[in-house]
Amino acid sequence: MGGLRETFLTTHWSLIEGVQKQQDPDRAVIGLLLARYWKPVYCYLRRKGFGNEQAKDLTQGFLHEVVLNRHLVERADPAKGSFRSLLLHCLRQYVIDERRRETALRQIPKEKLVSLDMADPPELPEAASLLDPDESFNYAWKADLLERVLGEVKESYVNRGMETHWRLFHDRVLQPVLQDCHPLSLKELCTQHGIEDEAKASHMLDTVKQRFHEVLRRHVRQTVASNEDVEEELGEIVRSLKK
Questions:
Q1: Which among 54, 72, 131, 193 could bridge 135 via Cys, Cβ 3.0 to 4.6 Å?
Q2: How many domains is the chain partitioned into structurally?
Q3: pLDDT tens per residue across span 110-127
Q4: For the residues 185-193, what does the mean pLDDT come to?
Q5: Is residue 178 situated within a structural domain?
Q6: d(Cα 21, Cα 18) in Å, to the nearest integer?
Q7: What predicted TM-score, i.e. pTM, was given to this entire model?
Q8: Of the candidates 94, 127, 160, which is a domain's last residue?
Q9: Domain containing 25: what range?
Q10: Residue 85: how many CA atoms within 13 Å on its side-chain side?
């Protein structure tokens, strides 16, 4: 997302269920699933002390050796918790297994490789460099989820010709959080964005905030097993934003 609160990731049970229903999962779907998982895996491995190239190789190895070859997606069960927790548990075991880690890439048939866009892997932000590997994994997961949510909200307003709503939300709510600074007053924002009065600006802000919460809740609900888990996950995200 920028600043010290950069980049993170989400899982969609609908995608997982789509893979589970196919006898021969389409490689395009698998590729999409992998594209969503490699960033937190990579961040975890970097925080475990691996260099850039080795972390990329191990990420590729883990995704193919464990996620694909052991059918981790097909075995996922939302009743047993989030896919994020399952993935992290398996990643810990993968790192512990020295022999598998050393031979993983050599065991992957070239024709089964799914290309990962890792030419320019994410630079670990300063905040992530202070976290332990598990925290770094979860940090990378949540930040990407937030980026997806914010991207959807922004697109919905821009496409409807209501970009001023988004810019007001960005300047009043997002920017102060990301840059750890005080927000501009509504009066200043009205002048900056050509809004008639503060009452109208306040109403516009409330509208975008409501939309943001709706989209965030929907995205989170797709990653967990129950409504109770939604509240717990939302709480974690809110706490992350306040750090």
A1: 131
A2: 2
A3: 555 555 555 455 555 566
A4: 94
A5: yes
A6: 5
A7: 0.60
A8: 127
A9: 13-127
A10: 11
